[in-house]
Design goal:
There is one protein chain. The protein has 2 domains: 8-180, Rossmann fold, CATH 3.40.50.1950; 190-400, Rossmann fold, CATH 3.40.50. The protein is α/β, with parallel strands linked by helices. Strand 1, helix 1 (19-31) and strand 2 form a beta-alpha-beta unit. The strands form 5 sheets. The chain has an 8-stranded mixed β-sheet, sandwiched between helices. The chain is 34% helix and 24% strand. It contains 14 helices and 19 strands.
């Protein structure tokens, strides 16, 4: 990927423990070919010294709105105009609130208001702060204004708690930023994506599901939007942030997902079925919680709708891309699914092993079509998703002459 070569990136660093990762982020951005200038808030300087960022960026670090030397040349305007993109990592809850309300009381918030370049934020905060209604409202407002949101991830936090709110790792942020500069190979196209697991209830408390996190599907939706497509994402239950510019429809069961797909299918050019849909559901859902006993329990399962086959069999189907999560004989099973369901392409990966598949941040996909195939990755799911969307666009364009 060469999207960041010779790009000017203003990296904003706000106050938070994740600021220690931002020094490595500068190095990774420069490795990708970008020129980086760092703007730090007063809070950020409490965690990392400006000299650190000067050393890794090779440029003076900007910290003050009222620096007489810089402002003699309108320094905040100069930075805003110089930038090809502005990335704030970490973006604290306070920073998001100030951006949302248009405050301009420090250099970083002033650059945000003054730039015409794309802006992205990488949130980092305590898990409770992340789900607070004020933060969610600020997030929605920023996304409506076109601010791209990268993450956050889930995991252990500095406060000792575990959950959503971790800043994405530097390489993940580089890949996400590359997406802002991806060529608009799907400009004017409509793309429907499914992502995440489904939940099939047993009773009001329990359900059948799988280990899908939704990371791959959400990355695909983000990559398609970055490529210029109008994207609708039908998502099963998962704790993922809606990518910027993507319309999201939340569902829970396979039947709800099938209904949502059919409702949104008319007019779609491409359908990408990355969701891990449950093949079966229980025949009868208990009205009350099933009580534990010493006796064995037998569940009668019935097949769920085959969403992918239904789309491929439509009278005027979109270019249809399936996913296959396999534990063995990946190509054999994937090509069989490609043929049986009449798909245009299928992306297969081996699950159940470290370093890829469900819940992991990285992946490797073997993509097949009639008469061909290509391996994508290994790499971060954000990077693999960009490669996949590029390949889908290539195959889609080639298919138009034969339809």
């Amino acid at each position: 990927m060469a999207q960041l070569t010779d790009k000017n990136i203003v990296l904003g660093v706000s106050g938070g423990i994740a600021a220690y990762k931002s020094a490595d982020l500068v190095r990774r951005l420069r490795d990708a070919g970008a020129r980086v200038r760092v703007v730090m808030t007063a809070g950020a300087k409490e965690f990392v010294r400006p000299l650190t960022f000067q050393a890794v960026s090779g440029q003076p670090v900007h910290t003050s709105l009222l620096d007489p030397a810089a402002e003699a040349a309108m320094g905040h305007i100069d930075l805003a105009r110089w930038a090809d993109a502005v990335l704030v990592a970490p973006a604290s809850a306070d920073l998001m609130a100030r951006f949302c309300h248009g405050l301009a009381d420090d250099l970083l918030s002033t650059v945000y208001l003054a730039t015409e370049a794309p802006v992205a934020i990488a949130p980092a905060m305590n898990r409770v702060m992340w789900v607070h209604p004020a933060t969610r409202q600020n997030l929605a407002t920023l996304q409506e204004r076109g601010v791209a949101v990268f993450g956050p991830g889930r995991g252990d936090q500095a406060c000792g708690e575990t959950g959503a709110g971790r800043m994405l790792e530097p390489l993940e942020l580089v890949a996400a930023l590359e997406g802002l500069f991806a060529p608009p190979v799907l400009a004017g196209r409509r793309v429907l994506v499914t992502a995440g697991p489904t939940r099939e209830p047993l009773d009001p408390v329990r359900y059948l599901s799988n280990r899908s996190s939704g990371k791959m599907g959400f990355a695909v939706a983000a990559a398609a939007a970055a490529a210029g497509a109008r994207v609708t994402l039908v998502a099963g239950p998962c704790a993922m942030v809606t990518p910027s510019g993507v319309q999201r429809v939340d569902v829970e069961t396979a039947e709800e997902m099938a209904t949502a797909v059919q409702q949104n299918l008319p007019g779609q050019d491409i359908f990408i079925a990355s969701a891990a849909v449950a093949d079966y559901r229980v025949a009868h859902v208990a009205d009350d919680k099933i009580k534990k006993s010493d006796a064995a329990m037998h569940l009668q399962l019935v097949p769920n709708p085959d969403i992918l086959a239904g789309v491929a069999a439509a009278s005027e189907p979109p270019f249809t891309v399936g996913f296959a999560a396999e534990t063995s004989s990946v190509e054999e099973h994937a090509r069989d699914k490609l043929r049986r369901k009449g798909l245009d392409m299928i992306a297969a990966n081996r699950v159940g092993q470290a370093g890829g598949g469900f819940e992991a941040d990285s992946n490797t996909l073997d993509v097949f079509w009639t008469g061909g195939g290509r391996r994508l990755g290994p790499g971060l799911k954000t990077q693999v998703a960009q490669e996949l969307v590029g390949l889908i666009a290539e195959r889609y364009q080639g298919s138009q002459g034969s339809r």
